[in-house]
Amino acid sequence: MSRRSIQRTVARIAAAGVVLGALAACGGDSSDTAAPGTGGGDESGTAEDVTLTWWHNATSGPMPEVWAQVAADFEANNPGVTVVQTGYQNEELQRTLIPNALASGDSPDLFQVWPGGEIRDQVANDYLMQLDDMIPDTIASVGATVNPWQVDGATYGIPFTFGIEGFWYNTDLFAEAGIESPPTTLTELNEAVDKLKAIDATPIAVGAGDKWPAAHWWYQFALHSCSPDTLTTAAAEFDFTDPCWIEAGTELEEFIASEPFQEGFLGTPAQTGAGSSAGLIANGQAAMELMGHWNAGVIGGLTPDEQVPPFLGWFPFPAIEGSAGDPNAALGGGDGFGCAKDAPTECADLLAYIMSEEVQSQFAASGSGIPTVTAAQSSLEDPNLKAVADGLSQASFVQLWLDTEYGTTVGNAMNEGIVNLVAGNGTPEDIITRMQDAAATL
Amino acid sequence: MASLTAPGPAETAGPGVLRPPRVRHRNGRTRTWVEVVVFVAPALILFIGFVIVPVVLAAVYSFFNLPAAFSWDMLNAERFVGLDNYTRAFSTPEFRRAITNTFFILFASLLVQGPLAIAIALLLNRRLRGRGVLRLLIFVPYVLAEVIAGLTWKLLLQPNGGVNALLEGLGLGFLQRNWLADPDIALYTIFLILTWKYVGFAILLMLAGLQGVPKELGEAAEIDGASWWQTQRYVTLPLLAPTIRIWAFLSIIGSLQVFDMVWVTVAPTVRQMSTETMATYMVQQGQFAGQPGYGSAIAVILFLISLVIALGYQRLALRRDLAGAVTRGVR
């Protein structure tokens, strides 16, 4: 009897525990969601004491230290302001942390803002502070690179680095093949391909296995076939009716038919291992690769001595003769920061400080990327980054990566269509149809 | 669990006993319920929260056209698209190819792995020098993690990898292929890797099944003048049938779910061209293409196909094997 009663008591206590636990969980939930409504920790305190939270994507290399120094300097120059800066892994930050923080209403004050489809969604949900009236001089200092961070003419983010895509090439192989200067037109590019084949080098490496490196070829053909106006309209209204969009696919088809790429390119990764497209450049097997501004670092990481090979050179994507496209148009992307809608005004001041010539020069000197403030570009030491920066300064029109520009849904449909075309299973028209179908679901 | 039956004797004790049976009865029942709640609730909460609710939510999402991020505004009636996601799935060539690929893996697994496993099991069931070592070796691939096995094969099957080097060394250079990058053969390569990985499990099952076949029957058949082949064909195989049916069931379920091996082994482009399975297509569209609604519809289709096949197979093929277990009342 006594044993049973003990059992019974234990069972009841346990049951009560379960119920209590469930109640506690519910209570915890409601208090969590209530907190942001009553004003987060950011706005608390007196007018002089402000805490700014800052999320960025610098987790390795020289950048974490640069940002920490920036935060410390800003605190020193602005008594009463505390800056809490944290670096998170890029994809985690972009796909999970920031969307969740914004949706829950408890977002950091200053954070990484990705251009194109993503910033449009954030502005549509009223998450971001408009910066035009707060720091107009800073916005002006970065010129046209700020365009992707604008929605309907208003600025919601400012890029601290921006780079463009071009051909990374092996100057030794070019010399051996008798190519005197980097191609400036598509015809010259085709000639260069023939000359490189003649010396048994793989003319162009492409990491088509990862999809996007193949897609970038079509982006470039579209960029140089379509007028800047057509590109701008397409980004704003998903209008792909201009014949230049089909033309881009047709030209890419013809180009692939000349077999410029390495054997089995459909399965080649872009950046991992000696068999990747960057690896083929690093070990001198292939002569050219169309890739973004980061590629010198990737190639350097794949050489035996882990140094950027001295033969590496850079030239912009050549013009397509007789097309409506701007011959000096460039395709690129970058990293930018924006402030949350309800962040204290000091957030904009911190952003202005990050974008100051002084900090931008530090950034340039660290070799982490190309600063957007033109005056700071003289601080670039890395010759490859300098080449890309020169290309950027000569570009008359800068288009954001098309998949970023159009957002995940349309961008992915576009990339799938391009991959089919590159693999010989699709048509130029099919790419456009897919994009329009995807845009219709938005 | 003995306490569950405790109320029984008390009830039959009749009114003459010291303790009033009704009180005992109620106490016992209350305690039983408390115990049921305490022991079952945690598992039940987890099961409902992480299995039932997501399945139901996926079904709900599948009727909506959801944007990728931020606003899963379910209350927005404009986002309701009815069966559009489903009609779109079946009119998309990529999804139809994903279904075809999945069923290719399913039938090829049954037709190749089954006979292969039975043959090897019959061989390993005989007295054989080094039988234990052979059994161990054959089972090793199954023990390896799928991702590890996939990446290992990915390295071996590179254009300049181990397999092609081996072919070259054997003087079979003409057989060299770009195994995983050639869309024409990538699916067959994947199937071979899957066979390598899972045939060991089939052999193990068949060997276990063969232990249950009485030796006397084989000996009796021999005395009656049956050859070894005839003994296997007319005595051993029929008695192995329950094992074969269970293995086929597991194989079918596994084939419908193939994901990891394709995902880690084949480059995304080649996957899109030729080796997409239903599961990889679901993840690709729902997660990476920013279309959770469409991805949910794919998930529901995959779920229904699996359900129909599993239930149908249970009723038709496994009825006798599982009689009284999961198919009680099914006739």
Task: Please provide a brief summary of the model.
The complex is a heterodimer of chains A (442) and B (331). With 442 residues, chain A is of the alpha/beta class. Chain A is built from 17 helices and 12 strands.
Overview of this protein structure:
The complex is a heterodimer of chains A (442) and B (331). Chain A is an alpha/beta fold. Chain A has two domains: 45-163 and 332-399, D-Maltodextrin-Binding Protein, domain 2, CATH 3.40.190; 165-331 and 401-440, Periplasmic binding protein-like II (D-Maltodextrin-Binding Protein, domain 2). Chain A has 17 helices and twelve strands. Chain A is globular. By secondary structure, chain B is mainly alpha-helical. Chain B has two domains: 2-53, no CATH class; 92-316, MetI-like (MetI-like fold). Chain B has 14 helices and no strands. Chain B starts with 6 loop residues before the first helix and ends in a 15-residue tail after the last helix. At the A-B interface, helix 1, helix 3, helix 4 and helix 16 of A face helix 2 and helix 12 of B.
CATH classification, class level of the largest domain in chain A:
Alpha Beta
Largest protein interface, residues of each chain: A-B, 39 and 36 residues
Named CATH topology of the largest domain in chain A: D-Maltodextrin-Binding Protein, domain 2
Tell me which CATH architecture of the largest domain in chain A applies here. 3-Layer(aba) Sandwich
Structural class of chain B: mainly alpha
Regions with little confidence, pLDDT below 50 for 5+ residues of chain B? 1-16, 327-331
Number of domains of chain B: 2
What is the average of the pLDDT values of chain B?
Answer: 85
Q: What is the molecular shape of chain B?
A: globular
Strand content of chain B: under 5%
The CATH class of the largest domain in chain B: Mainly Alpha
